Please model this.
Amino acid sequence: MKCIFCDNENEAKSSEHIVPESFGNTFYILPKGVVCDSCNNSFSTFESKALTDSVFVFERARFSVPSKKRKGAKGKVNELIIEADEKFRKGHLFIKGLNNENVKNFDAHTQSFKLVVSAFDKSEVAASKLFLSMGMEAIYQSQRNLYDKHSFNELKEFITKKDNTDWPFISTDFETDKFKSIPTYYDKYRLKKIYCSLSYLEVDDKTLLFKFKYGGIAMTINLLNRDYQWMELFYKRDKSSCIFPRHFERKFLKKVKKK
Ligand SMILES: [Zn+2]
Model:
């Protein structure tokens, strides 16, 4: 079989999980050979960085999702260390290193507060690679017509490391048009049970947006190229949206003002 990322003919021994196992996925898997063993192995580097050094670790700890090796979620986001409960109790997590900057709207009566943390710890490139590989694999698996229609060359170059130029994405759950689910029927339902949703929006022949949602986190990326003009609408309308890596947002701010 030909690997969809590097085009090498291969007889893979392992099967690629479209959504990483450490998000709790045991069923949404590509047939063997669709992704070769060497690509599969190399993906684990950006996968583990994106899953432990980013805001995703909070959600994984909160949902008590064990890692591939059946360990509780554990990670570091800048000054904070995040650990899941040893007994895998849902909703219990330990955060070390909190300071006043991280705590907003503290309510003395209920002892509750809003936790403000940075989303990535030098893990933006890893995260973008994770979103892109998930998006392309999901479309290959569940929306073959869409997969055949587009060329994913820029994405493949980036994922297989020949190109390491930053690829922008935006955190927002705002939708200009309705995104459509990539997985269908049973897969869609089972992914929802592990707090995941994967959807797409075809804007034009150069813009195929992929949205990955995990718990309360939603990230949208263009699978076809690094152009990010399309973000303007999302960015203007959703005040809480952020563009990553952050230098893209600074460029963006020069052009548009948040309303
Ligand atoms: Zn490959």
Summary: Residues 151-257 form one domain. Residues 3, 5-6, 8, 36, 38-39 surround zinc ion (CB under 6 Å). Residues 158 and 164 are 6 Å apart (CA to CA). The radius of gyration is 18 Å.
